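Chapter summary example.
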Amino acid sequence: MINYVTGHEYSGQNFTTLMMAGYDEGDSFVTFKQAIKLDGISGKALKGIKKAATLVRFSRTEQVQDENGKMVSKPIYFSVFDLKEVIKRKV
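The structure predicted for these 91 residues follows.
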């Protein structure tokens, strides 16, 4: 499973989340902002599209306190969309 725009391969918890959502290892995903930058795709065309999953990454600069008082990287949640579903909405 890979991000179509960046070429980043999903791993760990994100990989597991996508597998549990029913996707295969060869599938590609994009965020909303990446989708609207694809040629021929507008924000209006994506209206009503269902997200594939909500994934997480951890900030390299911001930290928060966990329940034990330890400082840990702040989680940043984002939605990804199946590239096949995005391409279907191409104008």
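To summarize the output: The mean pLDDT is 92.
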